[in-house]
Every structure is written in structure tokens, then in C-alpha cells.
Amino acid sequence: MRKKEFDEYSPEHLNRLKKLLSDIYLGLGKLSENIYLVGGLVPDLLVRNKLSYIKEYLGTLDIDLAVKFAVNYKNKFRDLYGKLRSMGFEKQKTADGKDAMSHSFIKYEGGFKPIVLDLLIDDKFPPKVDRLKEIAHNVDAVKFKGVYLVFEDFVVRRIVKKNHEDIEIKIPNIIPFLTLKAFAYMDEDNRAAKDAFDIWYTVVNFKTGPDSVRKELLRYKTNHDVADAFGAMRKLFEDEASIAVKDVRNILVLRYGLNIALANREIIYPMRRLWL
Fold first, then answer.
1. DSSP reduced 3-state for 112
2. What span, in angstroms and rounded, lies between the C-alpha atoms of 57 and 55?
3. Per-residue model confidence as pLDDT tens digits over 140-183
4. Are 59 and 13 in contact (CB under 8 A)?
């Protein structure tokens, strides 16, 4: 993560995302029953920060939603594109600007950073080679490994919307969240330092910390996807030279002002406790 990117992560943008998230859930109506928040907004809702040197959660730049979908659900989602359009979202362009993407939507708000909304779905839909799955007319979702875990193990959080009832948001519990983040970080072509930070941040802040995460992990001892993710995570956070430790250390030093030695201790010690 480059230094200049730090300015893009702010409490103000995080609050805008949460406000818009509640608007999205309201706008989707009954469809929101099949929508689960995943990605970088989750840590702020899943755990409460207990680290004195972190005054505010780093934040995130977009909204990632996992869609609980089955082929016979397709009629349920027939109005999804229209609903997204009515909320001000339009399809994002590809990097070369020539085509529109049907899984990634963007909302422009004057004077603020645009907000990106990405849709995900579990990767088990055939054909396996296809990266995208059509879930409605003009709307696709990215197939992603381990998304099914979120639908089986989630918690509900409430976002207070001014002058309206609280909005209930379903988010992954700790093990599904860490599994998805590990898979995202394992993708070297799309690896982001923020994914490593989110893994570490949720581990140290979940209930009583790594010991509580380890207890949750026992429930998944026969799940191969979780085993793969946590096996990779162990190597990624192994020591000071490991890529994930470097990425988190860089954020702790440049964003939160820790010295290098303290940052290394803050990262490596709690992560090692996961495998005691």
C-alpha cells in the first residue's frame, strides 16, 4: 500500500459507505434477505477495536455483497438491475474503458470519492471455468471460493439510519470472514495490503483475541476450504520477512505511527497464538 493511498481511507468515507449500505438494503427490499455484506466493511461491524494506538479503523473503499443464489431464484432477482439504477449506480467500465462490467457498479456523488459496489457468489456453479455467473438480467456476480461459508455462519448487525428504523445487515462470522480474506490475499495478481491488515485486525480484536478465534476454528476442523485458508495464513504471517507481516507492518508504521520493532511484535505474536 503506497503512502499516498492512505488519504483515501478515512472515517468520513467509512461512514458514507455505511449510510449508503443501509440505503441499499432499504432499496433492495425483500431481495436484501439474500444479501450478505463481505469485504472491508465487515471488521468495523464484526469487532470492537481494543488497540490503544489505533484511533479509528483503517476503513475501506468499496462495498462487497455476497448473493445467496440458486438457479431457481433467478426470478427473484429480475428487478435487481433496475433497483441498482434507481439508487444511482451504473456499471463500471473495464480498465481500457471499452466495455461495461455487469458485476461491478459505481455511484458518483459530487465532491466525494465515487462508491463502488461489487457482487460475489459462491464458486460452485458450473461451468467451473467461468469467472462470472448471471444472477439477473444485466447483472452478474463474481464466483469466489468459500462464499457458501458466509451463508451458513453469519451474525446480524444493525446500522442506525436517521429518521428510520434500524437496518439489519448480515455479515460473516469470524471464520468465514478470515477464510474469504485469506483467499483474497492469496491471489497474487490482486493482492492488497488491506486484506492482510483486516485479517490481523479482526484476529486481535475478536472477543478475547486469538484464543477466541482458535475456539471458533475447532468447529471447522473437517472443512477443507477453511484448512486451506488457515494453512496459507500461517505461512503468510510466519515471521518478519513474510509478505503479510510486511504489509501490515507498513500500515502500522506509516498510518498509525508505530516503530518497526513494536509493529512486528504486535503482528507476529497474536497471529502465532492461532496455532498453539
1. coil
2. 7
3. 999 999 999 999 999 999 987 766 678 899 999 999 999 999 99
4. yes
CA–CA dist 3, 132 (Å, integer): 33
C-alpha cell at 27: 432499496
**176-227 residue pLDDT tens:** 999 999 999 999 988 999 999 999 999 999 999 999 999 999 999 999 999 9
pTM (2 d.p.): 0.94
Residue 57 CA to its chain's centroid (Å): 14
Q: Would you say 217 and 175 are in contact if contact means Cβ atoms under 8 Å apart?
A: yes
Rounded to whole angstroms, what are the CA distances from 52 to 139, 203, 239, 261? 43, 16, 24, 17
CA 200, CA 271: separation in Å to the nearest integer?
7
Cα–Cα distance between 89 and 268 in angstroms, integer? 41
What residues contact residue 217 under an 8 Å CB cut-off, 6+ apart?
175, 226, 230, 274
Q: Are the C-beta atoms of 183 and 146 separated by less than 8 Å?
A: yes
**More confident call, 74 vs 65:** 65
Residue extents of the structural domains in the chain: 1-172, 174-276
C-alpha cell at position 8: 483515501
Q: Which of 64, 37, 40, 65 is nearest to 172 (CA)?
A: 37
The Cα–Cα gap between 190 and 159 comes to 30
Amino acid at 245: V
The set of cell numbers assigned to 170 is: 448480515
Residues 135-141 have a mean pLDDT of 94
Q: Give the phi and the psi of residue 152 in degrees, each rounded to 5.
A: -95, -25
pLDDT digits over 103-128, tens only?
999 999 877 889 999 999 999 999 98
Q: Which CATH architecture has domain 1-172?
A: 2-Layer Sandwich (3.30)
- With a CB cutoff of 8 Å and minimum separation 6, the contacts of 102 are 91, 132, 134, 138, 139, 140
